[in-house]
Every structure is written in C-alpha cells, then in structure tokens.
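User: Sequence in, structure out. Go.
Assistant: Echoing your sequence, followed by the structure tokens.
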Amino acid sequence: MGARLGQLDVDTLIIDKNERFGDNWRKPYELFVLHDPVWYDHLPGYHWTVTLVRPGGEERTVKPKHVIMATGHSGEPNIPTFPGQEKFKGKLVHSSQHTTGGEFKGKKAVVVGCCNSGHDIAHDFVEQGADTTIVQRSSTYVMSSENGLGVLFKGLYEEGGPPTEDADIIFSSTPNPCHEVLHKYVTKTIADLDRETLNGLAKAGFKTNLGFLMLYYNRGAGYYLDVGASKLIADGNIKVMQGQEIGTWYLRPKRRRKTTAERILGPEASRMNEVWGLDTEGS
C-alpha cells in the first residue's frame, strides 16, 4: 500500500510494530513457506527506508487526511476454550503460537483444521518425527502450488513475466464476475493436472472440492495450496479424521479483520467497511 501511494506522490508514513520491515514474514513458524510464486508476492516500487518510533522513544505527531490499516490477511488470533480443556494433560497450541514441531518428536500430535496453516503445521510435525493426525471438519479446496499457480498466473506472475506493477494492472482489469465464469474452466484444468494428487487424497479419506479464486475472494479461507503435505496425507504419513469436533473449539478461528483497527482506533473504526467478501456488483 505504501508503495502504491508513493507512486502517486502521496506523502506517506508507514508505522509497523516489528523491528524490521517484513518481520511479519520472517517470524512465523520455522517451516513457514510461501505458497505463491515470488513474483506474485513481490512488493513493487518499494524503495525507501522506514524509521519506526519505539515505545518510550521520541513521539511524532502527524495529521494525515487518510489512515490505511494494512493489518494483514487473517485478522487477530481468536483463541477460544472448549469443554474439558483443563483435563487435557498435553500441550495446546494455537497456530499463531506455533514455532516448530521439534519438541513433539516421538509423540502424538493432532492438528484441527485443513487449510494452509493446518497443512503446514501437520507437515512440520511429520518432518520432526511426530505421529500426526489432521482433523477435517468440511471439504477443502486443494491445488498444487506448481500446477495451480502456473495456470492461474501464466504470463503474469512468473519468470520472464511483466513487471509486477504491470501484472497487477492486467490481472485487476478483468471484472470479478468475469473471473468467476472463467475460473470454472480454469479449475477443471488445474484439477486435471493435479488428478494424481486429488485421487490420492480421496483414497486417504480427505474430502476436496473445486473452486479457488472465488472462495478466496469471498472467505479468504477454505483452501490449501499444496507444497508437500498432500503427498504425506496420500501416503498415510499424516492420518485423517473426518467430521470430528472438539466441543466448540477450533484450531485457527479468526476475529473479524477489523479487530486490529478497532483495538488501535477505538470507536472510530466502526466507520470502516468489512474488508472481505464481494458486494452485489462483484467488487
């Protein structure tokens, strides 16, 4: 966002709670990997240095005409409790608190949730020698990062593609309702390329569905861009439990995306619209 405003010659101050720009990518769990091609995650036009004001340091007062809350994709962690939690003698870890599965070597681990984070954490447990089970409550859209993103972003976000700022304009030029129609055909193409993976998941009892882009636009959740965990499931290295609930507790529930803004801005944040989903015009 700061890069885009800079391209428009808008005087912009970026404020970040982390020590370095990009630390929100550097500091998740140790097995953290990008599920998208690097060209898609590139930050176009970002060429300046940001100085942060620390707690207890010098204060700077600014009076901007606009405040943009770029608080991330998932909102703040919502860590609930579930009946009988106090009786459980093992370790309970929310995905936002996960760093490494190393301490679970030789132990049993259960991961509740089957989207990107759930798969990544289950993958980590297996790599670290844990007996791992993943609990699936509803079907998940799965496509391989190699095949799926290769089809979706062909000619745009790839080696030899146009500059990211140009690719963004080209991709955004297609109205979302058109994306929805076109993606029905794209989804089938990706599924055909991933047929071996999808068949392996089905044999392992893992439920999948079709359709990524509109699922992403409407929910921002419900999918896994496969970077290796699907084969572990198909081969039985990650066991699957289907349709199981643990009271009212889930591994990775999220608060509304406005939660961080509400915590920082107070009642003023109520003026903001929700930041996910499509309106009646498909925007």
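User: And one key feature?
Assistant: Residues 247-254 have pLDDT under 50 and may be disordered.
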